[in-house]
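Students often ask why we bother predicting the structure of a whole assembly rather than each chain alone. The short answer is interfaces. A chain on its own may look different once its partners are present, and contacts between molecules only exist in the joint model. In this exercise we take two input lines together and write out one structure for the complete complex. Read the inputs first and try to guess which parts will touch.
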Amino acid sequence: DIQMTQSPSAMSASVGDRVTITCRASQGISNSLAWFQQKPGKVPKRLIYSASTLQSGVPSRFSGSGSGIEFTLTISSLQPEDFATYYCLQHNSHPYTFGQGTKLEI
Amino acid sequence: EVQLLESGGDWVQPGGSLRLSCAASGFTFSTYPMSWVRQAPGKGLEWVSGISDSGDGAKYADSVKGRFTISRDNSKNTVFLQMNSLTAEDTAVYYCATRWWLDSWGQGTLVTVSS
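Now the answer. The structure tokens for the assembled complex follow.
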């Protein structure tokens, strides 16, 4: 099975900061990676797919990059509504696997 | 607009069984693979299972293989998750989602396994 290692597991940041979250796959997954945002008590929401394609309606301050083994999610200028937990998902080979999550706090 | 409505979550004793349903609308269900994802209380997301659009291909996480069965009824726009031999570790909110890459999600249904 492919393991997804996400870092950091938690971080503190301020409004306006630039933030980067990383996911590393235990083997190459091409660009078969998605990023999700989950706010407390809410359903996860997909932000990015195919490693770098922004989901329709998602603000342009979110971006994704990477291919193969290492991937990043960047928020260019944090907004108050961005404080949430973020997960990566590899959908290259079954069983699909999520990263353990990154909790982004003020 | 894609809508997914899960049902069937309940409290069940260890060793018991439960069948979850997910009713879909707002898209051509028979052309979409479907997935189940779960989240234990206070924990992260775990991909559980997925099924092809025709229903002839199913995949499972190692943690549920041999105990859970995914199926679908394209005439009723519904996907199911039959869960047997449940343990406390299966306690979670179960979400259904569209396609293999989870682009739309339902609101989830809570399964509690406890004696």
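Check your guess against this: Residues 59 and 72 of chain B are 13 Å apart (CA to CA).
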